[in-house]
Specification:
Chain lengths: ~350, ~350
């Protein structure tokens, strides 16, 4: 297995991505292709003592797409951008999967243009796994790719998210819920009302009905289906809220007097363990589902550990034939719908 | 000042609501009208030793609207439901404000039908105040009343939420943000893209642009404007997430060995203080804005303290002429838009 790693355009610079890739090569049975400015990549590989590692290949790319650039325009104009060059390595099958922590928008566009969508998939969805109260993870999708999703997009998200949960997270018969403002079937906005009956008749998934915002962190379902606007807002809220809550707890302890401070020291190891369990970098990035090859999008602020974990997920993504299985199920669902329409 | 309190249809029964109202009469300079089954109300007043309190009036209502009933149908068919009878006390000006912790849907419908909308307000919005990192509160609206909001609804929410922040929360020139998937002006779904320019030209508010989910808990803005579907999902998520996170912390401490357990005991007072600061019942329920009289909707699981606080907010709502100020600003904005259209 050979993983393409886009090393450019991230918050902490190529060094974190390169370090994460070196660790991945040690940890997993794989090769990596580091895509970016050759001189910079070489310099860091030398510093990390990995320049002679045969499992690490360098692919030069002279351009970078920044976080603020208009994705479609940038991908079209910058033929030698690292994400474009990396995507082409997927198309030519020189690599089996791709990991990027640059602009999410640019990665999504490059994926569609350079690699292509799975036949029948109208729009790819971004799936994010978040830790839940059961000590497992809940897949939320779409988490930002498809705002103004049509009901068909939501159904395809449900199918793709279920394959992710089953084949990569190893959850047997993952339960799927539609994110809504109430549990009853008649609740919701136009989008949810139109999506509900379609999900009910999608045999490729185990649909259990509507779920509410409060059900996401409890692990009531394994896959939460929603519009990309809602998913993006909720996941970014979760990020900010967790941080705020932990800061508030820290402040309460620091300002709580001597005993509270001592207590704070005593619970430190337990809190560190919990923090690790909650740490997004443990979860190896988000999956761009619906593309003809495994595509992983990491947070722009990913550090080495997050990249190593993302490469691990990319390997699972490729080894477990997730793309082929999604393709089969999407075709199955499409065929049944055509039969129903006739 | 006289506050109508709907005592029926809540999770913990009339006793919690009645106890909260008794406390409010002691705490604030006001009268309350308890609306519900007379015999039941009398029984609890007697138990609490408040049957002779001249500031507590009973108004009999023989019917209840349950949480699962279809709101519009229930309000139309149950003329003697407590929420309907209470709303009529507002219309006749026998009461100055109303507090309910029954079905949110039924309360919203009763408000529109029995009390009526402020002239120019297309649809009332539910505003929820949540604690932020700055130790203040952020107003989120709409939090569940208007799913599939039109841009006009969002603009009116922004105006009404600003008045709430200024007149009840005492925030001078409250900053307003539009909840979106990115900060840049060109980001968003159709709804956000259409709403942004309208907010920009609304002189009644201090609009600072888009905010993301992560900005809600930090207090970056004082008023977050969003569609009712998104607001409902985010607020319910916050509720579930905070609970899950605290449970995870508790479990981490309990399972963290002897030192962690001792530490947990030492930080208990500091955590209790923080819990109080985060407790939704301290915030006195959500405000139904756009109705011709002050209308407060509490969580169905409200206990006595939440009701006492809600009555306090209802008094502020009435005393600070929030309804009149909203009415003026909505008319102002409407007039300017008409002039622009000509």
């Amino acid at each position: 297995m050979r993983i393409a790693v886009d090393v450019m355009g991230t918050d902490y610079g190529p060094q974190e991505i390169i370090l994460g890739a070196i660790e991945a090569v040690k940890k997993f049975d794989c090769e990596v292709v580091l895509v970016g400015a050759e001189a910079v990549v070489k310099e860091w590989l030398q510093k990390y003592g990995a320049l002679d590692n045969k499992k690490i290949i360098i692919k030069n790319a002279t351009q970078i797409i920044g976080m603020q650039e208009q994705p479609a325009l940038a991908v079209r104009n910058k033929k030698d951008a690292s994400i474009v060059v990396a995507s082409k390595l997927l198309r030519s099958k020189e690599c089996d999967a791709l990991v990027s922590s640059g602009s999410t928008g640019a990665a999504s566009v490059a994926a569609v243009i350079c690699v292509g969508r799975i036949k029948g998939v109208e729009r790819p969805a971004i799936a994010t796994a978040i830790p839940n109260l059961k000590g497992k993870t809940t897949v939320v999708l779409d988490s930002g790719s498809i705002v103004d999703a049509r009901p068909l997009n939501m159904v395809q998200s449900a199918i793709m998210g279920s394959v992710y949960a089953e084949k990569i997270l190893h959850i047997a018969k993952p339960k799927v819920g539609l994110l809504n403002v109430g549990e009853e079937e008649g609740k919701g906005n136009e989008q949810a009302l139109a999506t509900y009956p379609l999900l009910k008749h999608t045999k490729e998934i185990a649909f259990i009905g509507n779920v509410e915002g409060r059900d996401i962190p409890t692990g009531k379902v394994d896959v939460v289906v929603c519009d990309g606007f809602v998913g993006n807002v909720v996941l970014k809220f979760a990020e900010g809220f967790a941080k705020s809550l932990l800061t508030m707890i820290k402040n309460a302890i620091v300002n709580g007097g001597l005993f509270a401070k001592l207590g704070g020291l005593l619970i430190k190891p337990a809190m560190a363990k919990l923090k690790k369990q909650m740490d997004p970098s443990e979860y190896g990035g988000a999956l761009l589902l619906g593309i003809k090859a495994p595509f992983i999008i990491c947070h722009g602020s990913s550090k080495a550990k997050a990249i190593t974990n993302a490469i691990g997920v990319a390997l699972d993504f490729a080894r477990n034939n997730v793309v082929d299985i999604i393709s089969e199920k999407i075709t199955e669902a499409e065929k049944r719908n055509e039969e129903l329409e006739q």
